[in-house]
Amino acid sequence: MTRTWPSTFADRLSAPLPSLRDLLRVYRQGGLVPRGTALDGIPGLPEKRDGLPVVGEGQAAVTWAGHASFVVQIGGLTVLTDPVWSRKIPAIPARYTPPGVPWADLPRIDAVVISHNHYDHLDAPTVKRLHRATPVLVPGGLGKWFRRRGFTQVAELDWWESASVGGLSFGFVPAHHWSRRTLTDTCKSLWGGWVLGEQLFFAGDTGYGPYFQKIGERYPALDVALMPIGAYSPRWMMRSVHMDPAEAVQATRELGAAKMATMHWGTFGLTPEPVLEPLYKARVAWADAGLPREDLWDLAVGESRVFDRVAAL
């Protein structure tokens, strides 16, 4: 039986969406896409393509494919987060680097989690590549998008709800963001982050705010946080929906996670800050917080980290 969802989730917004006046101001300032000097002097984004790691018993691993797409090996499952393997998405310049893991090199995908429906997080051509029996876990109101495309195992969750796939728990948690895919569906589906196996947090897309402390209280075993650090300029407009690197570090601390893996930078040109600036700022913020350098996973495209699972999970 299909669940009935509200006609709008606008009441979940943390702040009002940009007005027409705001958009015109951005346009007068040069728009949101990096141009000219924003790309000057970039020697090439860091890439490391060693393939997926071997994960032993009691271990898990994350491999950054680019933007918000990770290949997560955890609990005997291979999970994709916000998979975008396309070279180009609507209204955005082509990606700077190819996906860190070629699609042909992926093992069987046991589950997919989607944070929200923006094109840089929900890519129809990539979704089309998935087997229609693949379990997909999505925000409330987004399930019909997948069912129309023939997917047979769709779990649609509200904030603070959870589901299980192959014995692994997937918790859907709040985020400071919004949703829209067309001119008529603003906030018609929900948005949020995911907690995999009680230990791994995938933020999706979010601004900074009080949800992180609440998530940490709900999931005290969190150890690894996959955090967005890019697409934060101009700050007056993006603050409520996209964290900057310093806010991502602060949010990681409030979650109680020891390790932060950076994402949502260096793949698509979404906003005007220089392409490598998020990486540099994340390193500075991490050092300023006095945190161990080895716990900042500033991954290159295609790079992996293997970590131990919490014994009790």
Structural topology:
Elements: H1 20-28, E1 59-66, E2 69-74, E3 77-81, E4 111-113, H2 124-128, E5 136-139, H3 143-147, E6 154-157, E7 162-165, E8 168-173, E9 193-196, E10 200-202, H4 211-218, E11 224-228, H5 235-238, H6 245-255, E12 259-263, H7 277-288, E13 296-297, E14 304-308
Helix pairs in contact: 4-6, 6-7
Broad CATH class of the domain at 52-222 and 298-307: Alpha Beta
Radius of gyration, in angstroms, nearest whole number? 18 Å
Instruction: Specify the CATH homologous superfamily of the domain at 52-222 and 298-307.
Output: Ribonuclease Z/Hydroxyacylglutathione hydrolase-like
The main pleated sheet reads as: 7 strands, mixed
Number of helices: 7
What is the fold-level CATH name, i.e. the topology of the domain at 52-222 and 298-307?
A: Metallo-beta-lactamase, Chain A
Major sheet strand order:
6-5-4-3-2-1-14
Gross geometry: globular
Uncertain runs: none
Q: What's the N-to-C terminus distance?
A: 31 Å
Helix and strand content put the structural class at alpha/beta
Strand content: 15-25%
Would you identify the CATH architecture of the domain at 52-222 and 298-307?
4-Layer Sandwich
Average pLDDT for all residues? 93
